[in-house]
């Protein structure tokens, strides 16, 4: 029961954060298009967001360890809320700043929450480390479910209610506020080992260059992510002229991703013994 309560407190905060994040996916390009920006201008906004995520990703671990994991999760809810509020502006510079804040928020989302959980699981509650994958596996499942549902919800507000492409971003804000409130109320603070950023980066670089397999894996991952980012940018302008409900299309993409993940887990299960080369 103690472990289940601990999991529930984690899922309560993390799933709200994921829902707020996924709600912003289906109508981002459409929003910029709605504001009459050209494709090249929209591309620059996207690049600023991706670059911000990369740069903040380099320092996010050190920042989270120094600031505290709980505070970092609360900071995530604040920065992402401001990011959503910038979507109300037609000003190009404001929208660029919003995407930069979105990059920071994404870096925090994929570092602070898991770091908080692992520390609490092992250090504070002394639960068996073997239980950690079960928690993250279930979180990954709910992440897919939430992504599918978020597309439908975004479509409901943007198109069925006719509130326009900015509506899903406004719906995200209450979820982000609840994320911060629940983290503040239910989570204890914890910190990581304070290390110099330069040392962290150098250790990572040494690991990358000293092991050919790590370098190869990183290269493959980078190429894959590049393709995904190109797809993220292009799918809306390619499909939108045909008038599909973008939220439902987004949900279909996420459902296909969930099916793919499930097929992979089945393929490598003991029953089929299909292992990666």
TrEMBL record:
Molecular functions per Gene Ontology: molybdate ion transmembrane transporter activity
A Pfam family of this chain: MFS_5
Keyword Transport: yes
Transmembrane stretches, start-end: 12-29, 41-61, 96-118, 139-158, 164-184, 214-235, 247-267
Subcellular location: Cell membrane
Main location: membrane
Membrane topology: Multi-pass membrane protein
Keyword field contains Glycoprotein: no
Record keywords, A-Z: Cell membrane, Ion transport, Membrane, Transmembrane, Transmembrane helix, Transport
Domain of life of the native organism: Eukaryota
SUPFAM superfamilies: MFS general substrate transporter
GO cellular component, one term: plasma membrane
GO biological process per UniProt: monoatomic ion transport
Family to which this protein belongs: Belongs to the major facilitator superfamily.
Function: Mediates high-affinity intracellular uptake of the rare oligo-element molybdenum.
Protein's recorded name: Molybdate-anion transporter
Gene source species: Dromaius novaehollandiae
